[in-house]
User: Which sequence fits this backbone?
């Protein structure tokens, strides 16, 4: 059996790879090894460990590597610590291939460690375009990888233009769309989100609709993080609807984002916002599907919400360049403009879903390819 080592480094990474983990476990020729590291272990940023274990996955290694400070220096140090600890983990587990996910800065540590240890690297979600440091990381990981599982034809074409061998690049779709497809089969939200997942905030009544907010700092604009989140807070507070807000990722600037949120909570007593850290992947997408729409700068608004037909107001540059559907309205950082965009575009009327990032069968496709393809550590580039 081929040992496939999957490294999950952050809260959103689990939803991006969950169906692949399922498919690897079910494949007769594959054995799953699972490493959970970085912010995926920390409750402060919405730990994914409980959900992973509740879903029945065995975690082989836990790597604590996040350096406190939430700045540019700490991002670099967190990546370095991750690289050191992952090298030890790979030496212990001796995988046949390492699977890394998307574009977070911790992701590159997985690809570097695997490459220097002569372990083939497979990459999910290469070839896409985004803003901030994610843009550099994603393409750097592509060059360090030996197998590429991309979301769509545009991403495929871009990876080929980067010189990768066509017979190593496969259009599989994004595994998170698999979960979205399951949501469409049974879309009702069977839980009371606040009772189930806790959190803090003002009392909200979700009976007549609500909005979801996911807003992260932009690493190349980290000094403006507090100012930017304050504009979003002002806008959503002026809307007469409950707001379900999810805590930001651990990126440079997240300290400023967190301070902006805390200052708002302390100074605006009668607001309409409830704050969460994390949901299970399925419950989160059901929460989105049943909402009036999503606000902020998370890729979920571009990816899963395009499939689900959930209207989205995307703010700022964080998702700049990413292929988007007709569900998305782009806007800058001005609270009056944000409020206007919400009122005009997020009316709880869903758009027709689009298969921009997959059709709901990615996990099985990726597992099959991991079982069938030749594993190589050398590369013949086709520039």
Assistant:
């Amino acid at each position: 059996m081929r040992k496939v080592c999957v490294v999950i480094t952050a809260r959103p990474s689990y939803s991006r790879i969950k169906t692949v983990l399922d498919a690897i476990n079910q494949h007769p020729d594959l054995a799953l090894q699972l490493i959970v590291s970085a912010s995926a272990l920390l409750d402060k940023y919405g730990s994914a460990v409980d959900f992973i274990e509740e879903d029945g996955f065995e975690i082989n290694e836990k790597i604590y590597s996040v350096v406190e400070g939430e700045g540019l220096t700490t991002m670099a140090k967190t990546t370095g610590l991750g690289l050191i600890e992952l090298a030890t983990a790979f030496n212990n587990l001796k995988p046949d291939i390492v699977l890394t996910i998307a574009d977070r800065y911790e992701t590159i540590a997985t690809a570097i460690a695997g490459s220097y240890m002569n372990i083939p690297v497979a990459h999910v979600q290469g070839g896409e375009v985004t803003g901030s440091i994610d843009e550099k990381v994603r393409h750097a990981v592509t060059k360090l990888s030996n197998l590429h599982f991309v979301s769509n034809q545009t991403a495929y074409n871009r990876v080929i233009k980067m010189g990768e061998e066509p017979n190593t690049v496969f259009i599989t779709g994004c595994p998170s769309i698999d979960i979205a497809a399951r949501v469409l089969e049974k879309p009702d939200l069977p839980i009371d989100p606040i009772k189930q997942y806790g959190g803090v905030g003002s009392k909200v009544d979700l009976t007549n609709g609500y909005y979801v907010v996911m807003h992260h700092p932009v690493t190349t604009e980290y000094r403006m993080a507090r100012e930017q989140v304050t504009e979003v807070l002002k806008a959503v507070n002026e809307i007469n609807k409950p707001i379900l807000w999810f805590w930001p990722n651990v990126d440079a600037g997240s300290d400023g984002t967190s301070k902006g949120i805390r200052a708002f909570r302390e100074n605006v007593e009668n607001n309409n916002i409830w704050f969460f850290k994390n949901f299970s992947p399925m419950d989160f997408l059901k929460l989105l599907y049943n909402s009036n729409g999503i606000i902020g700068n998370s890729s979920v608004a571009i990816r899963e919400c395009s499939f689900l037909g959930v209207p989205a107001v995307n703010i700022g540059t964080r998702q700049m360049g990413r292929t988007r559907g007709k569900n998305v309205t782009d806007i800058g950082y001005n609270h009056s403009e944000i409020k206007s965009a919400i009122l005009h575009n997020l009316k709880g009327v869903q758009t027709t879903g689009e298969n921009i990032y997959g059709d709901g069968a990615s996990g099985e496709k990726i597992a099959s390819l991991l079982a069938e393809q030749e594993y190589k550590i050398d590369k013949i580039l086709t520039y």
Summary: The chain has a mean pLDDT of 93.
